[in-house]
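Slide 14.
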Amino acid sequence: MSTDILDFVTRKVDTKFGEEVTPDLSVLRTCIQCGTCSASCPTAYAMDYTPRQLWKLIQLGLKDEVVNSRTFWLCTTCKACTVRCPRGIELTQTMLMLKEYAVKEGLEVPEGIGILRETVTTKHNISGDENESRLIWAENLERRPEGIEGKKGAQVLYFVGCVSAFYPQAYSIPQSLVQILDSTGASFTTMGGQEWCCGYPLYGAGMKDAVAELAEHNVERVQELGPTKLVTTCPSCYYTWTHLYPEFVQLPDELEIVHATEYLAQLLDEGGIELGSVERVVTYHDPCDLGRKSGVYDAPRAILKSIPGLEFREMPNSGENAMCCGGGGDVEISDREVTGQVGVLRMQQVEETGASAVVSACQQCKRTLLTGARQAKIRIRAMDISELVWESMRNAESQQAGDMKP
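Slide 15: predicted structure.
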């Protein structure tokens, strides 16, 4: 293999913590071909070379086989291979760098990847809709909260994200969160049409260089509005704001960035919301960007265990060992059937728990799991934790109203 690609995929990349997250060549060469990465990969069955085989090709210097492989385009970047590798090889980061190399060198990439970049850089969202319509999900709210768009001085800024803003299956997620915020009396707002895609889809497609402009725009809007807390229901947006943006732009010192589950768990601890009974058996699906990549495992479970009447059953594959739903890494763009099949496999694991609903904390996970349930004809509901909390809060209000009747 020529040194250009080898140097590229093993170069050092400093994070905001000053850590070197990219494997150096000496580490990559310690691969013992145990197959743990391939066994952990949810999409390995569809790859021309499994992750284990790809590392061997790299070791052997077979550049053409590596760069022409579709293996890294089917990587969901779920990080399961990385956390399980006995040698500590940063396999996920290498997959991302292979995508980046292919893009920079002008190699053949899936058609949808090029369309993605054009769409995000011109429309500032992943759907291609007019960005000014980002609040379309709010049109069906019973009461549109005052100051929901561009309110300067609001303490909380809700960063909605592209999927929740433009995909109807996910509308109920922002609808639920803003109603929770409104009912607690929180001073909050959104950027509305001034919110741009966080850039994570481009990062996952090997176009990290294109994230800078998006980061600069979004941070400038935050500075104009002046919130002290940024809340997002999207794990990918959360990861981007906390891990990627610091590489491109200086974040406001006073800005605290939290995922919605962390925010809701804090409200519960402080007695800021009251939950009513929800008689249902549920299990929880850990989003990869929230769990393995960001380390948020406890907050969602604390919320579920706080809801009266709710029976929570953990899946064997949970926490750090949770199976990816298949919705990450832009795989849906490269091969929709692969994403759907992984969703089916995850829903089959959900079904084994006997739960009537699977709760997650990611709008893309909800979409992918719903698709898997439909394809496999599994009659289990997929929902976001914000939806469940809002349902519980409304049940509490109904209970109180009933108790007050003479």
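Speaker note: The chain has a mean pLDDT of 92.
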